[in-house]
Design brief:
By secondary structure, the chain is α+β, with helices and mostly antiparallel strands. It folds into three domains: about 5-115, Acyl-CoA dehydrogenase/oxidase, N-terminal domain (Butyryl-Coa Dehydrogenase, subunit A, domain 1); about 120-225, Butyryl-CoA Dehydrogenase, subunit A, domain 2 (Beta Barrel); about 230-375, Butyryl-CoA Dehydrogenase, subunit A, domain 3, CATH 1.20.140.10. About 50% of the residues lie in helices and about 15% in strands. The chain has 13 helices and ten strands. Strand 9 (about 265-270) and strand 10 (about 270) form a beta hairpin. It is globular and about 80 Å long. The two termini are about 40 Å apart. The relative contact order is 0.11. The structure holds flavin-adenine dinucleotide. Flavin-adenine dinucleotide binds near residues 125, 130, 359, 365 and 366.
Length: about 375
């Protein structure tokens, strides 16, 4: 049992591990090659409480501390597919602002069905004109009687093709952050068209370009108050950054494990690879980087559970975790040699999925900038 884990944590970890071993790992390479995983997986994941972790019981969630979220990430990561994690868990970035709004309409129509695995949710913030500068987004929502009329485009949206609900960031007011709202938009709305995007990695998650042409959305599907969406989005980003840091470290750990296993088995020049000092030092360097970032991450998880908001640290730990993954994935592929370059090995898939983690949820450069401001530099 890892340090700091209670019996509840350990039991939950065992449940998720079993689920991943039986329902995910044996199929994940085929799903990645096919470009999709079955929608039934949402229901199966919900049945063991995996989708509800961190959400309140009032909406069917499983209240738990940050360690529970870490367990979900670490155990899902053992399948070695970021696409699976991003697609299956897209609700983890789509739902938090809806839950915070404490609206019966949103709870009953959107949140409950999604946490029960009966519907899929996605978050749509990024636009073709830019993703980092959220305050400049242009997709508009104009009030018309009991509805809003939405016009604009969103791009790179995870689960965007099959989402039943889209949490869409829209401009309802003045330029800048004070004119932004969030709307829960039904995926089957007339005037909404979606097209799939091909990408470097994360193949089994769908990624979509969305077009809104006069999409009418009932006004009771606004999330919180009109023009008050930016703060909720920023809080959401902080959670997403922490999750991406967890994912990066979990994948770095998978790379380390696969590299160690390979180095033990592989014989070169009459001896196992792991007897070579150059290989041993690579493995020690990987483990050192993983352990230091993981310790930092665990400390932050505890601080956040205690009610603190360590914004600069969350930015910095995400950057440290993705840099650690870049290093570990590259070294793992190198240690596996030609086999590390072959489709279907975990390290090959993880290697080609590294980049998205330092772009999504706030890029390395943008997070460094935010951390600098938070540190008063
Ligand atoms: C596979 C995938 C899935 C995604 N899923 C979602 C999703 O579900 N929902 C969603 O809303 N978005 C999603 N995104 C979008 C993602 O969040 C954006 O790609 C990201 O925020 C960066 O925005 P951008 O691509 O427009 O790059 P830009 O903002 O145009 O930035 C381009 C480059 O310039 C750098 N840069 C920008 N500003 C500065 C600055 N001030 N100083 C220095 N450097 C700067 C950036 O770091 C980056 O390297 C996804 C992206 C990918 C690739």
């Amino acid at each position: 049992m890892p340090r700091h884990e209670s019996e509840t944590h350990a039991a939950f970890r065992a449940t998720v591990r079993r689920f991943v071993e039986r329902e995910v790992s044996p199929f994940v390479t085929a799903w990645d090659e096919a470009g999709a995983f079955p929608v039934e997986l949402y229901g199966q994941a919900a049945a063991i409480g995996l989708l509800g972790v961190g959400f309140p019981e009032r909406v069917g969630g499983v209240e738990g501390d940050g360690r529970m979220a870490m367990i979900v990430t670490e155990e899902l990561a053992r399948a070695g597919s970021g696409g699976l994690c991003a697609g299956l868990m897209s609700h983890s970035i789509a739902l938090p602002p809806l839950v915070a709004a404490e609206s019966e309409t949103l709870d009953e129509r959107v949140v409950r069905p999604v946490l029960a695995g009966e519907a899929i949710a996605a978050l749509a913030v990024t636009e073709p004109g830019g993703g980092s500068d959220v305050a400049s987004l242009r997709t508009s929502a104009r009030r018309d009687g009991d509805s809003y009329i939405v016009d604009g485009e969103k791009t790179f949206i995870t689960s965007g093709m099959r989402a039943d609900w889209l949490t869409v960031a829209v401009r309802t007011g003045e330029a800048g952050m004070a004119g932004i709202s969030l709307l829960a938009v039904p995926g089957d709305s007339p005037g909404l068209s979606r097209s799939p995007l091909d990408k470097m990695g994360w193949w089994c998650s769908d990624t979509a370009h969305l077009r809104f042409d006069g999409v009418r959305v009932s006004a009771d599907l606004i999330v919180g108050v009109e023009n008050g969406g930016f703060l909720g989005l920023m809080e959401n980003f902080s959670g997403e950054r922490l999750s991406l840091a967890m994912l990066a470290i979990a994948f770095a750990e998978v790379c380390w494990q696969d590299a160690v296993e390979w180095a033990r088995d592989r014989q070169t020049f009459g001896r196992p690879l792991i007897h070579r000092q150059v290989i041993r030092h690579k493995l020690v360097e990987m483990a050192s980087r993983i352990r230091s970032v993981r310790a930092w991450l665990e400390r932050l998880v505890d601080e956040i559970d205690a009610g603190e908001t360590p914004i600069a640290d969350v930015c910095m730990v995400k950057n440290a975790a993705t840099a650690c993954l870049d290093f570990c994935a590259s070294e793992a592929v190198q240690i596996l040699g030609g086999m590390g370059y072959m489709r279907g090995t975990r390290v090959e898939r993880i290697f080609r999925e590294t980049k998205v983690l330092s772009i999504g949820g706030g890029s390395t450069e943008v997070l460094a900038d935010l951390a600098a401001r938070q540190l008063g530099l």
